[in-house]
Amino acid sequence: MNKNKIGYIVIGVILLLIINNAIFVLDETQQAIVTQFGKPVGEPRTQPGINMKIPIIQKVQFFDKRYLEWDGDKNQVPTKDKKFIFVDTYARWQITNPLQFFIRLRDERSAQSRLDDILDGETRNAIASNELLDVVRSSNRDPEVTEDFMEEIEILEDINVGRAAIEKIILEKANMRCADLGVRILDFRFKRMNYVDEVRDRVYDRMISERNRIADQFRSEGQGEARIIEGNKERDLAKIQSEAFQEAEEIKGRADAEATEIYATAYNQNRQSIDLYKFLRTMEAFEKSLDENTNLVISSDSEFFRYLKRLP
Question: What structural domains does the chain harbor?
């Protein structure tokens, strides 16, 4: 291989390196700016495809064109009515002007730090300007009322702003502060809200007390119903016993009347049979009343002695 061929090869390699360094490709998810000695030159490159730059001297800074995520830190924030709550937020943002973004923020890491300051600050301001009721509720509504809890439902207070409106206010004010940063915040939301431990314990105690009060009322009403049922039972039992006693006495009365009638009829029809019956009954009385160890003292005109006097 002669020196001319080697020279051609070296020149070709150099030209390939220069051409390769002069060309860069953007895909659909990217946008870029070209810098020369650290300063941006020309317009931002936002269309996907092949782009050119001056080799060696110029460099390319790539930025994401897609929606980017911002996740806020969980912070303790006081409301207007002096109630401390933990607030966890998130947002979605996009680089809309890569040139301005590069001049002001340089990269996504700096942008995330700047968004922390802007969004966290606006969140604190918005919550401190509104009462807790407006922060946790989005609309006015009437609680569902049932027959069992009709007297227990409290009337909900009306809100003046609402959670959704507060999120919108934070989004608008944050975008105003981001206007010269080359970014736009697309959406902002409260991820989670919760009371601080001290306030949460008081809320739980109040909820427990309220539930216990309702339970005590139900127990009281149940005891009242039980007493009414017990009283009705005693009344019905006394009525049944009274009616049964009355019916038994009526049956006894009718039986005694029939027995008396039978005795009278028998007496009128057969006096001799009656005397025999009385004699037998008297003897049975003697048999049941007297034994070997019994002494009977009776008068001479006693009914018992009447039959003894007739003995021979």
Answer: 3-64 (no CATH), 68-195 (3.30.479.30)
